[in-house]
Amino acid sequence: MPFVIELKSVGVTYPTGNVTALKDISLHLPAGAFAFLVGPTGAGKSTLLKLLYADVRATEGSLSVAGREITRIASKEIPALRRQMGIVLQDYGLLPQRTVWENVMFACEVLGMVRKEARLRVRERLEQVGMLARCDAFPAQLSGGEQQRVAIARALVGKPALLIADEPTGNLDPETSAGIMEALLAICAEGTTVLVATHDKNSVDRLRRRVIAIERGTLARDEAEGAYGYAE
Ligand code: ADP
């Protein structure tokens, strides 16, 4: 499998208001890559990420994700595609009535994992994000950064080839954000491809990783050791 993400001249026009959100985007991410996706609000970052988990369809060009051509993926095949990736969003999305442990365990159940293996995986992932000690807490008892760590553990429990994060530190203070970014880098170091849309200038400038910039729906920059490139 040469690339985990491959876009060829992809365009997206939303039917509502005839908005062209992306134009002629060609992009490759190999297995194990880490990249930040940056750009002004409304540039098309979320649209690009949604393309990857088939929440939005390309109206031009073609794309493949995790070795699979998904340009015209059938709706019934989308759940299987999403099981191959972890998705982390800004709002954590934890189930409020369930503990930390149960939230991550629930993802294992959705994946149809056998109980014994699920318990091992939940433990391993919570440990990795530093949340095992809080496994009996409910989401409301946790800080935003802690909730996001749990959301990351949940996204990773199925050992996905790809982790997609859309503004994972959007609600967090700089220090907490830095911790979340470190956790994402550690996950990448294990071989998972990680793509993170972010406005976290501090982290992007400090970490000097690959930076893909989208401006007005077009690919403006793709730099190996890039900077954020915008005022905060
Ligand atoms: P970003 O994530 O960089 O802030 P988005 O991908 O959310 O940008 O949006 C890109 C453009 O597409 C914006 O002009 C936005 O208003 C428009 N857009 C996003 N979602 C929709 C939608 N569902 N219908 C119509 N237009 C949309």
Radius of gyration: 17 Å
For the secondary structure, the number of strands is 10
- Distance linking N and C termini: 37 Å
Bound molecules: adenosine-5'-diphosphate
Counting H and I runs of at least 4 residues, what is the number of helices?
7
| Largest sheet descriptor | 6 strands, mixed
List low-pLDDT spans.
none
Tell me, rounded to a whole number, the average pLDDT: 95
Describe the protein's architecture and organization.
- Helices cover 32% and strands 28% of the residues.
- The chain is α/β, with parallel strands linked by helices.
- The chain contains seven helices and ten strands.
- A six-stranded mixed β-sheet has the order 6-7-8-3-9-10, with helices on both faces. The protein has a four-stranded antiparallel β-sheet with strand order 2-1-4-5, with helices on one face.
- The protein is globular, with a radius of gyration of 17 Å.
- Bound molecules: adenosine-5'-diphosphate.
Topology:
Blueprint: E1 3-14, E2 19-30, E3 34-38, H1 45-52, E4 60-65, E5 68-69, H2 78-83, E6 85-89, H3 100-110, H4 115-128, H5 144-156, E7 162-166, H6 174-189, E8 193-197, H7 201-207, E9 210-215, E10 218-223
Parallel strand pairs: 3-8, 3-9, 6-7, 7-8
Antiparallel strand pairs: 1-2, 1-4, 4-5, 9-10
The structure holds adenosine-5'-diphosphate.
Adenosine-5'-diphosphate (ADP) binds at residues 14, 16-17, 19, 21, 39, 41-47.
